[in-house]
Design goal:
The protein has about 300 residues and is of the alpha/beta class. It has 2 domains: about 130 residues, 3-Layer(aba) Sandwich (Rossmann fold); about 150 residues, Reverse transcriptase/Diguanylate cyclase domain (Alpha-Beta Plaits). It has 9 helices and 10 strands. The strands form 2 sheets. A 5-stranded parallel sheet has the order 2-1-3-4-5. Helix 1 packs across helix 5 and helix 2 runs parallel beside helix 3. The longest helix is centred in the middle third of the chain and has 23 residues. The termini are far apart.
Length: about 300
Amino acid sequence: MGRRASFSRAPVVLVANAFGTWLSQALANLVAARGYRVHFVLSGREVLDQAPTLRPDVVVLDADLPDIDSITVCRTLRQDRAAWNMPVMMITATPATKQQRLAALKAGAWDYLSVLLNPEEVTLKIDAMSRLKLEMERALEQSALDPASGLYTLPGLERRARELTSDAKRRRAPLACVALGIGLDPKGAGESTALSGAAAYAGQVLQASGRTSDCVGSLGQGEFAVLAPGTAPEGAAKMARRLARVIETAGPRPAGVPPLRVHAGYDAVADPNRTPVEPATLLEHAGTALHQARAGTGERIQAYRA
């Protein structure tokens, strides 16, 4: 393979290959030449168990897995909103038929190949998919909305904060921000559950329970912000308590999501003209209050204090 531009980070490939070593040998060149991180598993169940945590850039599935049909594995990955843009390549040890290719593509695979291909062609395809995946990732980092969750990204929150602050000044109206942090309730039986699943559920609850005018976004893993126009300081305190309670008590929870414990921080201004506020200040203040609440130094719901 010819020399190509380096990646912004080492791409991760998850390979499910139950039989034979040809794929391992083919990918050895890819690892040596490109600096990939390749994880091998032997079954479809291992793919489904490891993919949410590993977050691979490309998944390579043996079409003849010993436990779960590879079409089912691919379809299940596609049902995960966080994996909507994850390239999946399926490979068969026999000549690929039209029916097999169509079934794989309908399940969400990006390609369906036969091992009769030159190994270099396989690695070139993986290389191309990885580059496209990382480019998509870079573009999403600058996007206002995360298409997987429907939540505002941090750049999106900052943009909306500027817009809402300008509007609040024009109308002499209050503006608030509530930040919420999701954790597992120590009294619940959720020790083996990944926090990412609980956070995804909490994001869905926030979107469903918020007002149309509210702007709900992600501050990071397990942390959210709600920009609330027309909400005075006393209303921000009530909103923080209400949203924390809704997340903790909403049901029924999806399978695997344990009882949750929510902390919150908030800040608000009654009139941005009387109390000047920079667009990003409310986000920063609410986030600071949240971290103080999560530090366990006081109440689980805290107002920002300079």
